[in-house]
Amino acid sequence: MSFNAILNTSRNKTPILEIVRHASKKTGGSTKNTNCKVKPKHRGWKVQDGHSVRAGHMLVTQLTPRFHPGLNVGFGRNGTLFAMVPGKVVVTCEKFDPNWEHTWVQRVYGGRENQTIYKKYFNVIPEPQHTRFKLIDEV
């Protein structure tokens, strides 16, 4: 703590000692994004085409079904695609044949009944099992 003494003289010429106190810390300057309440969700592809995955590995996180589950891929309640078996990821673009009676399909794809719709499908090709079995005894 630092103090500065200032000598003042009043009308009757008697010196008065005033003490002025300075701040001991600097004031905090503003920083960027201090009031940021939105955290990024990091949605999208988690695994690229051709990579190896284990069972239960997340492949895609999404809000709306932009990517669809293919062979050995599960579809979570929040739209997450995950691998059901260990293997290699293969992404394909296939013809999409929706159920036109469904209200959600009518709302999203309305007016596209006569068009060909293509969607991306995530597939997991299982790893081949080893062939090192040896017959010990016949039953």
TrEMBL record:
The gene is LOC113397191. InterPro entries: Ribosomal_bL27 (IPR001684). Its main location: mitochondrion. Pfam families: Ribosomal_L27. It comes from the Eukaryota. Gene3D superfamilies: 2.40.50.100. One of its GO terms (molecular function) is structural constituent of ribosome. SUPFAM superfamilies: Ribosomal L27 protein-like. One of its GO terms (cellular component) is mitochondrial large ribosomal subunit. This is Large ribosomal subunit protein bL27m. It comes from Vanessa tameamea.
